[in-house]
Amino acid sequence: MIGKDLLQLRGMPRETIATILDTADQMREVGRRRVKKVPPLRGRLVVTLFFENSTRTKTSFELAAKRLSADTLSFSVSTSSTTKGETLMDTARTIFAMQPDAVVVRHGCAGAPHLLARNFGWHVLNAGDGIHEHPSQGLLDMLTIRDRLGSLDGARVAIVGDVQHSRVARSNIWGLTTMGARVLVAGPGTMCRAELAGLPVEMRHTIDDVVRDADVIMLLRIQHERLGRGVLPSPREYASFYGLDLARLKAAGPNVMVMHPGPINRGVEISADVADSAQSVILDQVTNGIAVRMALLYLLLGSDGAPETAGGTSHAAD
Ligand code: NCD
After folding, report:
1. What's the CA-to-centroid distance between 204 and ligand 1, angstroms?
2. How many angstroms does the Cα of residue 63 sit away from the middle of ligand 1?
3. Atom of ligand 1 nearest to the CA of 168
4. CATH assignment of 135-281, given 3.30.420.40, 2.60.40.10, 3.40.50.1370, 3.40.50.1000?
5. What is the reported pTM?
6. Cβ partners under 8 Å of residue 223, min gap 6
7. 153-189, pLDDT tens digit by residue?
8. What is the Cα–Cα distance from 18 to 27, expressed in whole angstroms?
9. Which atom of ligand 1 lies at the shortest distance from residue 262's CA?
10. CA of 262 to the centre of ligand 1 (A)
11. Topology of the domain covering 14-132+286-301
């Protein structure tokens, strides 16, 4: 139903997104049990392959796989041969020889998960590819919004900050608009430029312009690692123009939800008191992330059961 891989939310049909969110809703129940484990993926191998740092996404996928009784293997770059010059495809061939059923991959280059998905028979889940997409994050954000608002249809979501370099923003923009939400964006000109005009968003200039019309305010970390020089104002200047503080939150109203994919920089894009306020759902996002990733692994692997799908395709040696 959802296909072989999870690569991006752009182009994903509305019914597929709804199925994933509904399945995640059911998976949440497992987390509330004393024994937090169910058997559907017993004996299946899920490999996490991270070429970029991660705390929450990697642990969340690993926990999700474990809760479904899969075996997990973490292949992290600092301890692997990629630091010795091995290419992505050679690393992938090594993993292929370990006969995984699914590989969760994060890479600094947009399209890296797509390359693996085309060349190997295992299921590929994109855990973030460059500035392109981070689909499981988009889905967990949508689940968190749907929980509070009841529906995504008609929801007004303001995304503030470094939209240009954010894969989280891109996945949310595609997923949310497919589900009927409106996305408003604001950020400094160097992080929120005209290229975004091709995306289904309403671009505004200031944070005040977007927050007063929003049901949800999603803040983004400045992607220092992806920025060229000279595009970043000082953190203090950024905070005064684009940071969400209590005064702006008050202007947005008492029912507005505050979200952030993490890691947060207190005092820059979000003030400490807003991050810790009752309107912040940042920790709900983390909890929902496990349920969404369980749903994804279950929907991708749970129904195939065919060992031959874990083999390479005829292009494996390309
Ligand atoms: C995000 C990422 O890696 O793209 N983090 C995450 O997965 N929770 C956002 C970020 O790094 O700012």
Report:
1. 23
2. 18
3. 4
4. 3.40.50.1370
5. 0.92
6. 131, 162, 165, 166
7. 999 999 999 998 999 999 999 999 999 999 999 998 8
8. 14
9. 8
10. 6
11. Rossmann fold (3.40.50)
